[in-house]
Amino acid sequence: MLRVSDQPVLLTSRPRRLRRTAALRALVQETALRPERFVFPMFVRSGRGVREPIPSLPGHGRLSVDEAVREAESVVTLGIPSILLFGLPDTKDAVGTGAYDDHGVVQQAVRALRAALPDLVIITDVCLCEYTSHGHCGVVRDGAVDNDATLELLARTAASHAAAGADIVAPSAMMDGQVGALRRALDGAGMSQTAILSYSAKYASAFYGPFRDAAGSAPQFGDRRGYQMDTANAREAEHEIALDLAEGADAVMVKPALACLDVISRVRRAVAVPLAAYNVSGEYALVKAAAARGWVDERAAVLEILTAIARAGADIIVTYHAKEAASWLAQR
Asked: What are the DSSP E strand ranges found in the chain?
């Protein structure tokens, strides 16, 4: 018969001592998850009183400007200071005219949000994919995206957003030189105080599907691998980020987040500027689908994922889970 010795086990360290109670665990917790870290993505469209559900993004919808203001008010009430706006135009064309229209839906939303919520941090996505008839992120010539021709349109978009009242513009098109083009346009228009959060390391990921469904922005031909990063590359992320910082980026982003925790950690060690990570639509939808089937505890899974993103080194977390996570954190 196996007998347990009466003699005490001599251990020089017992890490479990500091895990014994919730209070002890909180005392020594290394990563603190706070709503102030979160950015809540929102999709805005034309109309009034519109809340059009997005089936692939449960809990999210395409909102008219008035409803976007109401949604932002609820976001602020939860202690989340920032939103990220994406625009859904009524019509699209080959050069994404709606993106840089001073009366476009994002510009209208920014003005309304700024008037209603002066302290809200308004970030706007700067890209053409939601506005082009072909779904690519720039001007297409001879079947390929023309990098340099796209820069001017991205710069016009950013300047238009800033003039409407955006605090931060976030170029996501992955065009070479886009940060420099935006910085020159903003400074030249007397908007040097507008910050740039660059999607510096944006991978050609399989996890963007629900977003493309929400925005109607799937490419009509080919794919985006010619300008978005190869998911196999990590050193390249550091190179992209160094280029954007040299061009004037105030903060940088890695996207997607959960699939790129190693990249987030690598970038965190390399740079001192604020680092954002985008917990993208597909990552969100996977958790929602599993939770709906009872396969995971949604609250526990979401908070674990967001903690992992923060632990990897992200200062800012863009996430569709933001409202729910903030509510859960308030209940702890």
From this structure: 38-45, 51-53, 61-64, 82-88, 121-126, 140-141, 144-145, 168-171, 195-202, 251-255, 275-279, 316-319
| Residue 130 banded pLDDT, cuts 50, 70, 90 | very high
| DSSP per position, 232-274 | T-SHHHHHHHHHHHHHT-SEEEEESSGGGHHHHHHHHHH--S-
CATH number, domain at 270?
A: 3.20.20.70
Residue (of 285, 174, 302) closest to 227 by Cα position: 174
Distance, CA of 194 to CA of 183 (rounded, Å)? 9
Query: What string of DSSP letters covers 85-124?
Result: EEEE-S--BTT-GGGG-TTSHHHHHHHHHHHH-TT-EEEE
The residue range of the domain holding 59 is 32-330
Decide if pLDDT at 8 tops 90: no
Residues 6+ apart with CB under 8 A from 9: none
Q: Is the pLDDT of residue 206 over 70?
A: yes
Give residue 1's pLDDT band: very low, low, confident or very high (50, 70, 90): low
Is residue 27 situated within a structural domain?
Answer: no
Give the pair of three-digit tokens for residue 235.
Answer: 């050193």
Q: For residue 143, is it within any domain?
A: yes
Q: Is 255 a catalytic residue?
A: yes
Beta strands at 51-53 and 61-64: parallel, antiparallel or unpaired: antiparallel
Domain-located, residue 15: no
Domains of the chain: total:
1
- Supply the pLDDT for residue 2: 57
Q: Establish whether 202 is a catalytic residue.
A: yes
Q: What is the mean pLDDT of residues 169-183?
A: 97
- The active-site residue, picked from 92, 202, 288, 323, is 202
Evaluate whether 86 touches 130 at the Cβ level (below 8 Å): yes
pLDDT of residue 332: 78
Name the residue among 238, 255, 239, 252 with its Cα closest to residue 204.
Answer: 255
Residue 251 lies in a domain: yes
